[in-house]
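User: Protein folding is very new to me. Would you mind checking the protein record under this note? It all follows right here:
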Amino acid sequence: MSVSLSKSGLEDAAVIHAMQIKAFLPLLENYRDYDTSPANEPIDLIVNRMNQSFTQYYLINSDDEAVGAIRIVKRDNQVYRISPLFVVPEHQGKGIAQQVFAIIEQKYSDAKRWELATVLQEAGNCHLYEKMGYKRTEFSQVVNDKMTLIGYEKIMEIQR
């Protein structure tokens, strides 16, 4: 299985939107987080983010098929945020996300720190991030009685 990233533009917004809904719909149905779920976001929000100078979306390709996407947000002082990263359900559990982390860390080799947020109740996601070297931060936001968002960060080694 070959995993690659391709920079996306406005022409990819509809594909990204459709995959985002497909990837996050099971979580929306489980947690009923209608105000915060990426499955409930309008396509206009993705288009607006794509137009931000500090944002870059990438399509995640597995064997030349688009199977998800990742958005990288450049913050100050060589800090980057991943928001969101998703793979459609039929391609989850194949190690694709792990390869995506390796690719972005190489592509953004100037990063001093990576940040992301995830659902505390999604043990598989938490395990993945911890396996990839992310540590839990103090950020915690109760969304509703079923769901809490938590933060993770990864401090990068200084390249010499």
Notes: The first strand starts at residue 3 and ends at 7. The helical segments are 13-31, 43-50, 96-107, 123-131. The mean pLDDT is 96.
